[in-house]
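[audit] Reproducing an earlier prediction to check determinism. Same input, same settings, fresh worker. If the tokens differ from the archived copy the diff job will pick it up downstream; this log only records the rerun itself.
[audit] input (52 residues):
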Amino acid sequence: MCSEKKPNLADVINNLRSPVPFTHKVGLVIKNNLLKLIRAKSCCGNHGQPGC
């Protein structure tokens, strides 16, 4: 699903607007970006979470 769609700045901003406490949101961004780096993919697999 993610591999078909290119990264979009509007999607990033919408994901960061989610009603999650700031510290948890920062943790999700770091975790999801590390997953993308480790797996060498453009998506972490956690659709709709900050950082994905």
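[audit] rerun output stored. Observation attached for the diff report: The CA atoms of residues 12 and 51 lie 7 Å apart.
[audit] end
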